[in-house]
Structure formats: C-alpha cells, structure tokens
Q: What sequence folds into this?
C-alpha cells in the first residue's frame, strides 16, 4: 500500500452541531469532539477568527488531544501568536493554491484523483477540506483514497 503521509482530509473547524447524532454520537462530551474528529480526519482548518479566539490553554489541550500526524491549518496572519508546534501550519495564500483543495465546489472525483496522484508522486502535502463541513463529500473522498490505495 502507498504512503498516506502526504494526504490530509478535514473540515473547517470540528465543532458542527449538525454532526451530532450522525458523525458524532449524541452522548459524546463536547471536550471529546476533537479527539473523535481526529480518529477520522488528519487536519482541520481554522479561520483567523477561530484561531485568535483560542486561549493558550485551548491550544495546549488541542495539541495533546490529537495524533502526532494531525495538522491544524491556520489562516495566515503575521500578528497572530500561535504555539510552536509541528502540528500547526500557517496557511499563506500562495502555498494554499497548490496544497489545499476545497470540496465545496462541484466534486469532480476524476480531477481530484489526478491531483492526488500528482501529489503522491512528489510527496508534497495535499489537504482536502470542506468549508461547509460536507460529510458526504468527505466520505466520498475517503472512499476515493481507499480505491487509490492511500
């Protein structure tokens, strides 16, 4: 099987009330949401506002609650103070063009499979994310990843 170290699935934020009773079990405590999310996804995108609202204690908990390979993508801002961690990546617009794929447009699995294959050949990270937290699209991409052997 091919390496998956370059491919990261996720959504913008992990705290989606509409995921309760579907993705998240109804009785899952709020402070366990990120750990549960991390068992299925490898990244999360945080807007500047979301990242700035987090306290140092929040970041400490989030970093401890996620697996070593997990990545927090944070909208770029030079003034935002973030903890030093290999799990946190500031997303600059020029980098995002080639490394972030948003699923919120019409999902073209053929085009996405070509993009995944290109990144697999180079080993460059590819983050496939949903701003709208579209679990159906994320599930379809997960299936595509399995079919491709990643």
A:
């Amino acid at each position: 099987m091919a390496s998956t170290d370059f491919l990261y699935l996720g959504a913008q934020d992990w705290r989606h009330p509409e995921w309760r009773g579907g993705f998240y079990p109804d009785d899952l405590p709020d402070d366990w949401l990120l750990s549960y999310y991390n068992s299925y996804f490898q990244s999360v995108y945080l807007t500047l506002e979301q990242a700035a609202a987090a306290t140092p204690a929040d970041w400490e908990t989030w970093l401890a609650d996620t697996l070593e390979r997990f990545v927090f993508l944070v909208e770029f801002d030079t003034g935002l103070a973030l903890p030093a961690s290999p799990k946190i990546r500031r997303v600059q617009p020029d980098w995002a063009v080639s490394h972030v794929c948003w699923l919120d447009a019409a999902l073209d699995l053929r085009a996405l499979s070509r993009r995944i294959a290109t990144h697999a050949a180079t080993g460059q990270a590819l983050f496939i994310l949903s701003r709208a937290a579209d679990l159906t699209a994320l599930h379809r991409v997960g299936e595509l990843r399995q079919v491709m052997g990643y």
